[in-house]
UniProtKB/TrEMBL annotation:
<keyword id="KW-0130">Cell adhesion</keyword>
<dbReference type="GO" id="GO:0055096">
    <property type="term" value="P:low-density lipoprotein particle mediated signaling"/>
</dbReference>
<dbReference type="GO" id="GO:0034332">
    <property type="term" value="P:adherens junction organization"/>
</dbReference>
<dbReference type="GO" id="GO:0005615">
    <property type="term" value="C:extracellular space"/>
</dbReference>
<dbReference type="Pfam" id="PF08758">
    <property type="entry name" value="Cadherin_pro"/>
</dbReference>
<dbReference type="GO" id="GO:0007162">
    <property type="term" value="P:negative regulation of cell adhesion"/>
</dbReference>
<keyword id="KW-0325">Glycoprotein</keyword>
<dbReference type="GO" id="GO:0005737">
    <property type="term" value="C:cytoplasm"/>
</dbReference>
<dbReference type="GO" id="GO:0042802">
    <property type="term" value="F:identical protein binding"/>
</dbReference>
<feature type="domain" description="Cadherin">
    <location>
        <begin position="478"/>
        <end position="585"/>
    </location>
</feature>
<dbReference type="GO" id="GO:0016339">
    <property type="term" value="P:calcium-dependent cell-cell adhesion via plasma membrane cell adhesion molecules"/>
</dbReference>
<dbReference type="GO" id="GO:0048661">
    <property type="term" value="P:positive regulation of smooth muscle cell proliferation"/>
</dbReference>
<dbReference type="GO" id="GO:0001938">
    <property type="term" value="P:positive regulation of endothelial cell proliferation"/>
</dbReference>
<dbReference type="GO" id="GO:0007266">
    <property type="term" value="P:Rho protein signal transduction"/>
</dbReference>
<dbReference type="InterPro" id="IPR002126">
    <property type="entry name" value="Cadherin-like_dom"/>
</dbReference>
<dbReference type="GO" id="GO:0016601">
    <property type="term" value="P:Rac protein signal transduction"/>
</dbReference>
<dbReference type="GO" id="GO:0009897">
    <property type="term" value="C:external side of plasma membrane"/>
</dbReference>
Length: 713
């Protein structure tokens, strides 16, 4: 294999990167000569000019800056390229990058006879590399291709060339990768014979910043002869994106009276251009402030960080004296480090001046007057205050306290949330006869504490004078309710008690008359003068108007005022029981089969409306004068039940059996009730009582029902 000579892929930038939208037709911005050659000297001498470069941005070259791909060289302001120290080997190629705010361009210096020292152009100019360039010796040697984005027609245009002097005859170049034969396809292509690399359309760095391609040589059959060798295409940024504020809305808060230089908020914008270039280097400023009082420059924004701070004295930042506590700032972000040629974007910052409790509430007057009728409750007066703080905050909302004059807790005060007034109320009725006047001392404070240098003064307390008006109050019964115990059935006209009512209006010396208000059974009468209550009918404990042995009646006491006032008293009469009710039996009808083997007829129960001891134990008997012997039998089961049974079977018919039941009262009371017994025909599980003229109840059913009633007792 013959030794090969390293070849250089020459990157020719055919147009300057214009940073303004208009072109100067008489001037072509950039290097006048983009490809230069010098012979490799024995040594580059420090500070000795090697050659002169000529660059123009057609705008006077203001702020012209050069960068050299080798750290051992620099370009002076006059365009002379010099070495920074004595050096021999620097490689075969140097790149010089020139930039002003208006244009930028790159020139290539080929050192003929120079020794190959590989270095990446992106390391010098801060381009991102995604794959390193192999450093082994090969016949295809490539360097990155730099292409400005947003190039104009015509297309395709050459951007570089691969030359291989050791390439066999008939071999061809082949280019592959994303942007060639992979999506996005067809952006780059290579002349298979000459090795010229061309771009077919304009590029967008913000879409794809670099393309990683592969170059190789192939024979006529498509077999790879050498390679593939990585070829990196770097899209050079142009300033084609405006700064954008993405995080709005922007709302900041600053406390009133804050020191000068207090940070309110930070606003930052985003620029899609290359962050390593001035195209994305942003500067901030305030374009407009609304309102512009008390100063048109209330705030300042750090041009680099975007921090908004206060610049006025704390005295001017007084919420209570401001025309409007809300400020709106139009913030502008400009790229190109804020130069006039930079693109701009704006956003609105809203700044709220927050209130602090630097004003104490003050009563609108020192003394308030109120009147209230005795016995009434509710709000009697609204206390008004003034506070200059923000009504939407606890620095304005008032809290009232009664600090003197309320020993009986008859008064309360609450804050009206809409008006901030203090609503003074009577919560326990006042008595004119006890006190006709009351004096309260009330203080007002804020919900939030005051700032340290502000305190509550004399205006934060007020006196309330309350006059109680006398009204004609109704008489009051003593006691209420009134209670008395009597036996039922006492004689008509018996005195139950004498009621007593007094008039609270002791200073008026009024007389009192009595009357019956509610007497459900109509049993009572009251003397209108002295209040004696007597009976007009017999009192019956078993009456439906009596509940749990207690009869309730209401009486009125009416004074002689104008108009008269009325008081109501309740009388509770507890009635003691007497044995005035005879017991009764149940059931009073029974059935039995004419051929029954079980001669039990029915279980009888007894009940009495009276109370113990005038009830059970009951005595059950058959009233014998009307009943033949040796047919019926009655047996005691317990204090309240007995069993009636037959001593022999009877023919089908209706029988009436007189049952006598007696209670345990003293004296006792007796009741005789006929028990109707139906003797029925019972054949083939059918009960026939028709001949007997009785209801169709079986004796068995009656017995079961009776036993159930007994079990419940």
């Amino acid at each position: 294999m013959q030794p090969t000579t390293p070849l250089v892929l020459c990157v020719l930038l055919s147009q300057a990167l214009l940073l303004t939208s208009a072109e100067d037709l008489d001037c072509a911005p950039g290097f006048q000569q983009k490809l230069l050659r010098i012979n490799q000297p024995a040594e580059f001498i420090e500070d000795q000019a090697i050659l002169n470069l000529t660059f123009s941005d057609c705008k006077g070259n203001d702020k012209l800056h050069y960068e050299v791909s080798s750290p051992y060289f620099k370009v002076n302001n006059d365009g002379s390229l010099v070495a920074l120290r004595n050096i021999t080997a620097v490689g075969k190629t140097l790149f010089v990058h020139a930039r002003t705010p208006h244009a930028e361009d790159m020139a290539e210096l080929v050192i003929v006879g120079g020794k190959d020292i590989r270095g990446s152009l992106q390391d010098i100019f801060k381009f991102e590399r995604t794959s390193p360039v192999p450093r082994q010796k090969r016949s295809i040697v490539v360097s990155p291709i730099l292409i400005p984005e947003n190039q104009r027609q015509p297309f395709p245009r050459d951007v570089g060339k691969v030359v291989d002097s050791d390439r066999p005859e008939g071999s061809k170049f082949r280019l592959t990768g994303k942007g060639v034969d992979q999506e996005p396809k067809g952006i780059f292509r290579i002349n298979e014979n000459t090795g010229s690399v061309s771009v077919t359309r304009n590029l967008d760095r913000e879409t794809i910043a670099t393309y990683q391609l592969l170059v190789e040589t192939i024979d006529v059959s498509g077999r790879t002869l050498e390679g593939p060798v990585p070829l990196e295409v770097i899209v050079i940024d142009q300033n084609d994106n405006r700064p954008i504020f993405q995080e709005g809305p922007y709302v900041g808060h600053v406390m009133e009276g804050s020191p000068t230089g207090t940070t309110v908020m930070r606003m930052t914008a985003f620029d899609a251009d290359d962050p390593a270039t001035d195209n994305a280097l942003l500067r901030y400023n305030i374009r407009q402030q609304t309102p512009d009082k008390p100063s048109p420059n209330m705030f300042y924004i750090d041009p680099e960080k975007g921090d908004i701070v206060t610049v006025v004295s704390p005295a001017l930042l007084d919420r209570e004296t401001l025309e409007n506590p809300k400020y709106e700032l139009i913030i502008e972000a400009q790229d190109m480090a804020g130069l006039d040629v930079g693109l701009t974007g704006t956003a609105t910052a809203t700044i709220m001046i927050d209130d602090k409790n630097d004003h104490s509430p003050k009563f609108t007057k020192k003394e308030f007057q109120a009147t209230v009728e005795e016995g009434a409750v509710g709000v009697i007066v609204n206390l008004t205050v003034e506070d200059k703080d923000d009504p939407a905050t606890g620095a304005w909302r008032a809290a009232y306290t009664i600090i003197n004059g309320n020993p009986g807790q008859s008064f309360e005060i609450h804050t009206n949330p809409q008006t901030n007034e203090g609503m003074l109320s009577v919560v326990k009725p006042l008595d004119y006869e006890i006190s006709a006047f009351h004096t309260l001392l009330i203080k007002v404070e804020n919900e939030d504490p005051l700032v340290p240098d502000v305190s509550y003064g004399p205006s934060s307390t007020a006196t309330v004078h309350i006059t109680v008006l006398d009204v004609n109050e109704g008489p009051v019964f003593h006691p209420d309710p009134m209670m008395v115990t009597k036996q039922e059935h006492i004689s008509v006209g018996s005195v139950l008690l004498t009621v007593n009512a007094t008039d609270p209006d002791s200073l008026q010396h009024q007389t009192i008359r009595y009357s019956v208000y509610k007497d459900p059974a109509g049993w009572l009468n009251i003397n209108p003068i002295n209040g004696t209550v007597d009976t007009t009918a017999v009192l019956d404990r078993e009456s439906p108007f009596v509940h749990n042995s207690v009869y309730t009646a209401l009486f009125l006491a009416i004074d002689s005022g104008s108009p008269p006032a009325t008081g109501t008293g309740t009388l509770l009469v507890t009635l003691e029981d007497v044995n005035d009710n005879a017991p009764f039996i149940y059931p009073t009808v029974a059935e039995v089969c004419d051929d029954a083997k079980n001669l039990s007829v029915v279980i009888l129960g007894a009940s009495d409306k009276d109370l113990h001891p005038n009830t059970d134990p009951f005595k059950f008997e058959i009233h014998k004068p009307t009943v033949p012997d040796k047919v019926w039998k009655i047996s005691k089961i317990n204090n309240t039940h007995a069993l009636v049974s037959l001593l022999q079977n009877l023919n089908k018919a209706n029988y009436h059996l007189p049952i006598m039941v007696t209670d345990s009262g003293k004296p006792p009371m007796t009741n005789i009730t006929d028990l109707r017994v139906q003797v029925c025909s019972c054949k083939n599980s059918k009960v026939d009582c028709n001949t007997a003229g009785a209801p169709h109840f079986s004796a068995t059913a009656v017995l079961l029902l009776s036993f159930f009633s007994l079990a419940r007792l």
